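Researcher: We plan to redesign the surface later, but first we want a full-length starting point. Tokens attached.
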């Protein structure tokens, strides 16, 4: 079993905002959006299920309004807390990445 990886400290993620981090993997790694609501952190692949584009409008900058994240490409809207598709051209939700918060740090298992 490998040790958990520290992705960032919780306070590095703006409350009601997002931070983009890269998780290394054997195949080159992938980008993850960490979104915070108070002490809760939600993580998803930075890939829109509509056409596979990144959700940010410039690298690391995301449109987040009223607990929803809006894909910059065509406006698909997803719930921050569940990744569920709420509107726009998406037919499925964001792919969740398992993370946990421990001692003020966001960890990937
Ligand atoms: S790629 Fe995200 S809405 Fe089209």
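Model: Full-length starting sequence:
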């Amino acid at each position: 079993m490998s040790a958990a990886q520290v992705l960032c400290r919780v306070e590095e993620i703006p409350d009601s905002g997002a931070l983009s981090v890269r998780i290394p993997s054997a195949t080159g790694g992938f980008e993850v959006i960490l979104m915070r609501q108070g002490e809760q952190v939600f993580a998803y692949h930075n890939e829109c299920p509509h056409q596979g584009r990144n959700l940010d409008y410039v690298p690391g900058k995301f449109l987040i309004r009223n607990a929803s994240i809006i894909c910059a490409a065509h406006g698909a809207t997803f719930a921050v807390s569940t990744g569920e598709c709420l509107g726009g051209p998406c037919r499925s939700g964001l792919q969740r990445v398992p993370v946990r918060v421990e001692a003020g740090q966001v960890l990937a298992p």
